[in-house]
Design goal:
The longest helix is centred in the N-terminal third of the chain and has 52 residues. The chain is built from five helices and two strands; from the N terminus they run H-H-H-E-E-H-H. It is an all-alpha fold and 197 residues long.
């Protein structure tokens, strides 16, 4: 008779599976935390852009309710900025929710479009690394995943923060899509996130 119980290999296999599960879960949580931290930096950069827009609106004084013209554009910019403030507050509660990020992206593009209509020469586009963007792609096609956004404030911080958030989301989504880790994500109910386009 052997001194090793027959159930020992099962205990060893169970311990290895448990350690693997904990390690995979920690990796996913670390990547999720990185995406949340990147969202915090993006949120701060977007708030700075909003402050810039709202300060310029305040400098313009009270806007008259005119059906056409600059007063109407000011009102559209004020409304879109207020909508963006509301969606930023809502997105802070669940920063990785795809529906919330999609709504935030829509509100951001509406505000930026209103800003560009009001101040067509006062927008600056930056590449994801912070360098100034060229106005059009050289080969006529743009194959980049997220085209640079023309920001009201002449600072690359918002575009850099957006790119870092999108990269963190891509790493997190790739991690929860890998085969063994997809089981951990399914058990722990971790869902894919959406980048800000």
């Amino acid at each position: 008779m052997s001194g090793v119980p027959e159930s020992l290999p099962w205990w060893i296999l169970g311990a290895v599976a448990l350690f693997w599960f904990v390690g995979a879960y920690n990796r996913i949580v670390r990547l999720r935390s990185g995406a949340l931290q990147a969202y915090a930096a993006l949120d701060a950069a977007l708030v700075r852009q909003l402050d810039f827009v709202q300060a310029r609106l305040a400098e313009g004084g009270a806007t008259a309710q005119v059906p056409h013209g600059p007063g109407r554009e000011d009102a559209a910019l004020q409304a879109s900025a207020a909508q963006l403030v509301t969606l930023l507050a809502a997105t802070r509660l669940k920063p990785l929710d795809p529906a919330g990020i999609a709504a935030l992206a829509t509100a951001l593009h509406v505000m930026l479009g209103a800003w560009q209509r009001l101040h067509p020469d006062a927008v600056v586009s930056f590449e994801a690394d912070g360098t100034l963007s060229r106005p059009a792609p050289l080969n006529g096609r743009d194959d980049s995943p997220a085209a640079p956004i023309a920001w009201p404030e002449p600072s690359a911080a918002a575009e850099i923060a957006r790119n870092q958030f999108n990269q963190a989301v891509a790493h997190y989504n790739a991690a929860i899509a890998q085969f063994p880790a997809v089981l951990v994500a399914w058990i722990m109910q971790l869902r894919p996130a959406a980048p800000l386009r």
